[in-house]
């Protein structure tokens, strides 16, 4: 029967444990000098050698022929422990034996002297899973066990252990194994197992495994089942890191503010059964990589990506400002928290990408910084010129405050955000719901944002009354204006111009957007912000 690599190549001595030199040296020295503690606590992330060191320790304290602190792995005791035939070494899974009754049974067992070995060793894995009553039942025995008993506790979540347990153990913290050590171990195993792996692929596996030797060997197992000659591309395919072009497509839509393209990509991925929570997490990691590239001179060791994708990420990072990247990460992090509790993950993801494409829809501080930075870049690049204009005198004739403020300009196919039509009777557009119904098929995005809106007729002009801010952005894109004008014409039988009905705005609301207030103040002071194409 085939045995997984991480089981077959589990370390059998402290000398074979990779990436924990301080811990293995300390344990070997204790064994050589006979200063053996009655309780050990091994903590650290998964796959760093905690359980392996616990089993090596159980053999070393009982070995008939120890070798400089290591077990010989040849005597009857060592082989019996490896085969599970020595009952004096007990391996307990606290995840399934976490009740107070289990610990009471253990307290009775510890008083029994070893049958074959010198010490009875109790290895309690995932000890943080014990209930509070179970911890309390273990305290006295853990503090003063019989002379023939050694406890070894292992956990990945040491913060969940009571302080009373921590104070009774000799603690060793296992760090993540460095990628270089994992890579060296992988290449050694490849020689023994008769498969080939490039240095680049071995280091790539080490980075993907995030310091876990077990995860690295499990991934190698998966790769070897496909090919016997492993390259970085093989590893990327096995790890699911290949074929992620959709992340770059979404990034392009965000950079160019193309919300229509972003929504289309989300729809395509949703129909392909890609989980929206996973997509959001991948986007967070994508922008995290861009952040690292923008912030670190040599980011290669901090980013997990194939070489080709790493180069592509570098090119993408050049097109971003750091403030934009941080704003994108801020929105995606908040969206990820709400996806699980929301009614629809797809809608939640669509809302997130709309805010990414149009930062003016987000009133947070990160969005403001992103917009200000974009304005600074535009000024520096010459796309916006700032020219002082002479102060203009107010016209002698008073302006009628009851008029709609701005002038609606031609052509009819373009939407206008101005409503200055004097002495024209305003009538309710009774067929507006029919227009919205037509848009359901001809332009679904407009159909969605115009729900609940109304409209009025002023001569040859249709003024739309809506509180949905997305409408102003959406109506001018992708030919949506022409589709709306055509729907209106099919209802009333004539071509009309389109405008947005303005409402009186309170001073507090005018100042709610700091960037808009800044631009408005500049105009009032006679500064002309001229945008060049």
What is the fold-level CATH name, i.e. the topology of the largest domain?
A: Rossmann fold
Question: Portion of residues in helices?
Answer: 40-55%
What's the CATH architecture of the largest domain?
3-Layer(aba) Sandwich
How much of the sequence is in beta strands? 5-15%
For the sheet with most strands, the description reads: 5 strands, parallel
Overall mean confidence score, pLDDT? 82
Number of helices: 24
State the name of the first-level CATH class of the largest domain: Alpha Beta
First CA to last CA: what distance?
69 Å
Round the Cα radius of gyration to an integer and report it: 34 Å
Q: Helix/strand/pairing class, anyone?
A: alpha/beta
Strand arrangement within the widest β-sheet reads 2-3-4-1-5
Number of strands: 14
CATH homologous superfamily designation of the largest domain:
P-loop containing nucleotide triphosphate hydrolases
Shape verdict: elongated
Low-confidence stretches: 387-391, 393-422, 529-533
Number of domains: 4
Structure explained in plain terms:
The chain has 533 residues and is of the alpha/beta class. It has 24 helices and 14 strands. Helix 8 packs across helix 9 (199-208), helix 14 (276-295) packs across helix 15 and helix 16 packs antiparallel against helix 17 (345-357). The N and C termini lie far apart (69 Å).
């Amino acid at each position: 029967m085939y045995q997984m690599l991480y089981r077959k190549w589990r370390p059998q001595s402290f000398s074979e444990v990779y990436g924990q030199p301080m811990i293995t040296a300390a344990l070997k020295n204790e064994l050589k000098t006979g200063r053996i503690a009655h309780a050990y606590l091994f903590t650290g992330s998964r796959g760093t050698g905690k359980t392996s060191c616990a089993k090596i320790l159980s053999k070393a304290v009982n070995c008939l022929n120890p070798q400089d602190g290591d077990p010989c792995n040849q005597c009857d005791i060592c082989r019996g422990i490896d085969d599970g035939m020595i009952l004096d070494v007990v391996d307990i899974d606290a995840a399934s034996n976490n009740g107070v009754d289990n610990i009471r049974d253990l307290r009775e067992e510890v008083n029994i002297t070893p049958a074959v070995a010198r010490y009875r060793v109790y290895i309690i894995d995932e000890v943080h899973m014990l209930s509070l009553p179970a911890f309390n039942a273990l305290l006295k025995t853990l503090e003063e066990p019989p002379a023939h008993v050694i406890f070894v506790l292992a956990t990945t979540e040491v913060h969940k252990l009571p302080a009373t347990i921590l104070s009774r153990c000799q603690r060793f913290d296992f760090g993540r194994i460095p990628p270089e050590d994992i890579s060296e171990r992988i290449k050694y195993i490849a020689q023994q197992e008769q498969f080939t792996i490039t240095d680049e692929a071995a280091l790539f596996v080490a980075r993907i495994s995030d310091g876990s030797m077990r995860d690295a060997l499990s991934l190698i197992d998966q790769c070897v089942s496909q090919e016997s000659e492993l390259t970085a591309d093989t590893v990327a395919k096995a790890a699911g890191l290949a074929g992620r072009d959709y992340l770059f497509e979404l990034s392009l839509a965000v950079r160019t503010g193309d919300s229509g393209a972003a929504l289309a990509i989300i729809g395509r991925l949703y129909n392909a059964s890609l989980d929206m929570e996973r997509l959001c997490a991948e986007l967070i990691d994508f922008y995290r990589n861009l952040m690292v590239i923008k912030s670190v001179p040599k980011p290669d060791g901090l980013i997990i990506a194939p070489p080709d994708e790493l180069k592509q990420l570098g090119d993408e990072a050049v097109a971003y400002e750091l403030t934009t990247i941080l704003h994108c990460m801020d929105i995606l992090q908040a969206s990820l928290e709400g996806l699980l509790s929301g009614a629809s993950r797809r809608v939640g993801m669509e809302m997130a990408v709309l805010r990414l494409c149009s930062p003016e829809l987000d009133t947070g501080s990160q969005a403001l910084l992103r917009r200000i930075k974009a304005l600074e870049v535009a000024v520096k690049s010459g796309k916006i010129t700032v020219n002082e204009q002479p102060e203009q005198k107010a016209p002698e004739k008073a302006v009628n405050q009851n008029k709609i403020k701005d002038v609606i300009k031609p052509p009819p196919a373009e939407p206008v955000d101005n409503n200055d039509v004097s002495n024209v009777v305003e009538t309710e557009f009774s067929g507006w719901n029919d227009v919205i119904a037509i848009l359901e098929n001809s332009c679904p995005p407009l159909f969605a944002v115009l729900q609940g809106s109304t409209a009025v007729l002023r001569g040859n002009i249709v003024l739309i009354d809506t509180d949905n801010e997305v409408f102003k952005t959406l109506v001018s894109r992708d030919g949506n204006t022409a589709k709306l004008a055509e729907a209106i014409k099919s209802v009333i039988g004539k071509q009309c111009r389109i405008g947005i009905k303005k409402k009186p705005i309170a001073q507090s609301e005018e100042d709610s957007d700091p960037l808009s207030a800044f631009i408005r103040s500049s105009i009032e002071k006679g500064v002309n912000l001229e945008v060049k194409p």
